[in-house]
Amino acid sequence: MATMQLRAVTPADMANLSRALIGFDQIFNQRLHQQTNSNYPPHNIVKYSDKDYAIEIAVAGFTKSEITVEVDQDQLVVRGTQGEVVNESKEYLHRGLASRDFEQTWTLAEYMEVKDAEVKDGMLIISIERIVPDSLKPRTITVK
To answer: What does R_g of the chain's alpha carbons equal in angstroms?
Structure first.
C-alpha cells in the first residue's frame, strides 16, 4: 500500500498558482482575511486569453441601480444593496432565492484595468483587461 506524502506549500508554489489565476495577485491572502459572505453571491472568474478576463457574478433579484462596481487603486469592490420592499399581498411558502446585500472585494494585479460592467440574464459581467506598458514588453535589439 502506497503512503501519501504531505508537503508544505512554498511561497514559490503560491506565486505560480496566483499567476495562473487570471492576473489577480494576493487573492489567497485576501480571502484568508476576508471570510464574511465569501460565497455569496456565487461568482466565476474567467480567463479568455492572456490579456482578457471577466468576473461573472450571479445577481438575480438585483436591478442595475442596486449594484455598484468601484475600482479604488488596486481594489475592485462590487456591492449589491436592495431596498426593503414590503409587499403585503405576497406570502412566501418557500424562499430559496437569497435577497441579502453583499460586498465582494478583489485585489487587481498590476496592469489590470476594469473595462466595463453589464447585467445580462441575471449575471453581472465585469470585463477586465491586462494592459502591459510598451516599456515593459520584450523587444528585440538590433545587433550592429
So the answer is: 20
Residue-range definition of the domain harbouring residue 106: 22-81+97-135
Per-position DSSP letters for 54-109, written without gaps between them: EEEEE-TT--GGGEEEEEETTEEEEEE-------TT---S---S----EEEEEEPP
Number of domains in the chain: 1
We report the CATH number of the domain holding residue 39 as 2.60.40.790
Q: How far is CA 89 from CA 60, 79, 83, 92, 141, in A?
A: 22, 29, 18, 10, 74
pLDDT in tens, 27-49: 444 444 444 446 889 999 999 99
Query: Backbone phi, then psi, for 15, in 5-degree steps?
Result: -65, -45
Give CA–CA dist 101/129, Å, rounded. Answer: 28
pLDDT digits (tens, 9 = 90+) for 81-91: 987 666 678 88
Q: Is 73 exposed, middle or buried (0-12, 13-18, 19+ CB in 10 A)?
A: exposed
What type of residue sits at position 101? Answer: D
**Inside any domain, residue 8:** no
Entry pTM: 0.66
Residue at 91 is within a domain: no
Is 92 among the domain residues? no
